[in-house]
Specification:
alpha/beta; 7-stranded mixed sheet; single chain; Rossmann fold; 11 helices; 3-stranded antiparallel sheet; 25% strand
């Protein structure tokens, strides 16, 4: 058992107000539930990002140039990165994610399809500082799709981008997908789908916490709640107690009244200008970006040269 994850989960529940980090969504079940979310009609980011990548594949490859190593941040099932293999032609691929077992299976399957690419699955917590000493001197392309950068608050996102810029060491860059500001009704539908898969994804975090802490969360005591906070330009996701609840685990306890909530995720939305400015402030030298016709989503390549 990862002691640091246990300590982090416990610290979140003991905070005021309590929270669960979104990293705890991604156990084996959560990773598959997120795959299902990306197939939903309401959840536009994955579909639109893919269409942008396909429509501008040649331009993206031209912007990226030589790719010694493709580092897939939050790789999941590796499908998004593998769709770039034909155009970017990486010599090496690193799948990086917190859900180790799920990632290892995905990379094993991918290696069979692309035997010419050196591949590796690595456990990686993107909320911590990243370091790749074995790749010093290689031109690295960091790939961070799906607007996962939105899970960080703007200050954390800026620190993350500065870390990536420094790791590029004057070569390579960051290829990233970003959800843009849009009408709140579209955002509300995306995080409150009719099938309830996002709700299941949110609730599954409690089962993950139970395994980590030995706590007694019961799913029927909770409901999914997601809203768009326009003033903060972010979706906020919570688990709301449907009755008075007492949660206990060997080293702690949490009592909540009906209606009180545990915060599980923020998903910040950017404008093109605000996001590209953040990349430049992080130390990247230039940015090239592409978007869909409606301006829902942005794909951006930030170059370190």
């Amino acid at each position: 058992m990862n002691l640091s994850l246990v300590q982090e989960a416990e610290a979140g529940l003991k905070s005021t107000p309590p929270f669960i980090s979104p990293k705890f969504f991604y156990d084996a079940i959560g990773s598959r539930l997120f795959e299902a979310i990306t197939l939903l009609e309401e959840y536009y980011p994955t579909r639109i990002e893919k269409s942008i990548m396909q429509a501008h594949a040649n331009d993206i490859a031209s912007a990226v140039g030589l790719c010694d190593a493709l580092l897939d941040l939050g790789a999941g099932n590796c499908a998004k990165a593998s769709a770039l293999f034909d155009s970017l032609k990486p010599k090496q691929y690193l799948g990086l994610d917190i859900s180790t077992d799920f990632l290892a299976l995905a990379v094993t399957d991918l290696q069979k399809r692309f035997p010419q690419i050196q591949m590796e699955a690595r456990t990686c917590d993107l909320s911590q500082a990243l370091d790749f000493p074995d790749l010093i001197g290689r031109k690295k392309t960091f790939f961070y799709p799906g607007s996962s950068i939105g899970n960080f608050d703007p200050k954390q996102a800026s620190i993350f981008c500065k870390n990536i810029s420094a790791l590029c060491d004057g070569a390579g860059g960051l290829l990233i997908g970003v959800d843009l500001v849009k009408e709140s009704v579209i955002l509300d539908r995306a995080y409150n789908d009719a099938l309830g898969i996002t709700a299941a994804f949110n609730l599954n975090a409690l089962l993950h916490i139970n395994r980590l802490l030995g706590s007694n969360f019961v799913l029927s005591d909770w409901e999914h709640y997601a809203i768009f906070n326009e003033s903060q330009s972010r979706i906020e996701m919570y688990l709301r107690a449907v009755r008075d609840i007492e949660i206990v685990w060997p080293t702690g306890e949490l009592a909540l009244k009906a209606g009180q909530m545990i915060h599980t995720e923020n998903s910040y939305k950017y404008t093109k200008a605000s996001f590209t400015n953040m990349l430049l402030d992080a130390g990247f030298k230039k940015t090239t970006s592409w978007t869909d016709d409606k301006g829902y989503f942005l794909v951006c390549y930030a170059s370190a040269t």
